[in-house]
Design brief:
The chain is mostly helical. The protein has helices at 13-25, 38-48, 60-84, 98-123.
Length: 125
Amino acid sequence: MPTPSRIARPWNQPEENTFFDFLIEHISEGGDGTNFKRATFKKAAIAIAPFRTKGPPKDYSSCQNKWGAFKKTSRIVNSIRNLSGIKWDYEKGTDIGPVLSRTFFNATKHAELMNKEQEHMQGHS
């Protein structure tokens, strides 16, 4: 039987929107590195609870994992953007044509593979 932290807790768009809005409103609790404490994630879980449509309620751990995944993806996007010259806007996304779209897709996949390889290597050290 899976442990409570391993139970799938699917997110829907209203939960995600409320979660990120909550963190923006409480950004000062994250310090300079936006490393929020458990108490902030517990309050975020309470804030998103009314928007749950399936699965068990989110807890502090699922909120903490969501934030960690978002930060990791943001770092990848920012690295690609900075190295490639591809434009990125958080409201509009990327404004690229078909050729740069393939380049962006390939670069993203490459970055994901590099991250997985790094995680694998760290697990075996």
